[in-house]
Amino acid sequence: MDLPRLWVGIDLIGTRLHGELVVHSADGQRVARRLRRVAPKLGYDHSGEALFRGVVADVMNGPQIDHARTEAGIECRTHWITAADGTAVALLVWLAPPPVTSRPIYNSWIMDLRKLATSPDGDDLELYGVKRAVGEYKPIMGVFRNLNPDDAPGWTALVHDAGHKREGVTVDAVWSIRPDNDWVHFWSSTTNLGAPQPGRSVYGLTVQLPHRDLDTRLGTLVRYTNASLIMVDVHSRYVVAGSGDLADALLTDEPRLARVLTQIDLNRLIAAPTNDVVEQTISIEGSLFQAALFAMPAGPVQPGSLIAILLVPAPGRAQ
To answer: Would you put residue 6 in left (φ > 0), alpha (ψ -120 to 50) or beta?
Structure first.
């Protein structure tokens, strides 16, 4: 009997929706497929898959408590991940010979798509570099203060698709933050429930990735030009993330941020027939800034797109 020595994360919401086991991830890596399609690739033979299915079924039908058992040379470990309201979001399972490896870190979240805020729970809420309490709703903008700018479009697409894609579709994003000197990497996903509704709440799951190939071109541009970057969801006109000294100050001062955004002509970029950068000059507390607007991904601008606003000081003073 072949049993792969890895932690398997089961997407419980997807499993209950589809009526069969949906593998969220394995050893901290994205899978997002039904078990019957990926069991051989994960390392299960027919009897190993049958045993795994039986164990998961028994655990899912029992109380939401973690288990640790050893039988016939096989170690069985289970770990529940629940949302802040007690909803079971994922079940992590180790079913293989010893030794048992370290369990990947999983966090859950409930996202209010109307307010664009999330409420967390899970293994380690300190990973994000901002103070979070279980069940505490915080705007996405606050959670993503340390986000790699090149990852912001992926999260914008996830938020849009979570409210607009049909039931049963899994939407996801890979992203990284740097709360200190080192990057921390994640994969987040949610399986849509019910008819599309932009204002609904959704349950999501985030796993810490051991590594990823990181694209930091936009962040590097900001850092080496002394610019600041503000990233706005074109559909909701909500600021998703920002980087640079000025952006950091704006993201913690909503009235000041609002005064800046009222000067930005987003509609000019949305209506532009080409992918050219749109430029304009704005004033921030008496100082002139050149604002360059461009779409991410590259146009045409549409719902689910992100508008990046690059701000650099301009010569002269506002009158």
So the answer is: beta
Q: How far apart are CA 123 and CA 134, in angstroms?
A: 11
Q: Are 117 and 139 in contact, with CB atoms under 8 Å apart?
A: yes
CA 149 to chain CA centroid, Å, is: 13
The two structure tokens encoding residue 317:
């003073």
Q: What angle do the packed helices 46-60 and 35-42 form, to 10 degrees? A: 130
Predicted TM-score (pTM) above 0.85: yes
Contact 188, 205 (CB under 8 A): yes
Cα–Cα–Cα angle for 311, 313, 316, rounded to 5 degrees: 140
Cβ(288)–Cβ(317) below 8 Å: yes
pLDDT value, residue 246? 87
The predicted-structure confidence for 52-91, as pLDDT tens digits, reads as follows 999 999 999 999 999 999 999 999 999 999 999 999 999 9
Question: Residue 113: is its pLDDT beyond 80?
Answer: yes
Which position has the higher pLDDT, 126 or 92?
A: 92
CB neighbour burial string for 71-107, b if at least 16 within 10 angstroms, e if fewer: eeebbbbbbbbbbbeeebbbbbbbbbeeeeeeebbbb
Please return the burial class of 319, using the count of CB atoms within 10 Å of its CB with bins 0-12, 13-18 and 19+: exposed
Place of tokens 């994003």: 173
| Length of the chain counted residue by residue | 319
178 is written with which tokens? 């740097």
* DSSP structural state of residue 296: E
Query: Cis peptide leading into 98, omega within 30 of 0?
Result: no
Q: Tokens 């849509």 correspond to what residue? A: 192
Other C-beta atoms lying within 10 Å of the C-beta of residue 213: 6
**Can you give 87-119 as a three-state secondary structure string?**
CEEEEEEEEECCCCCCCCCEEEEEEECCCCEEE
Task: Of 310, 263, 314, 306, give the one whose Cα is nearest residue 291.
Answer: 310
The two structure tokens encoding residue 73: 């040379």
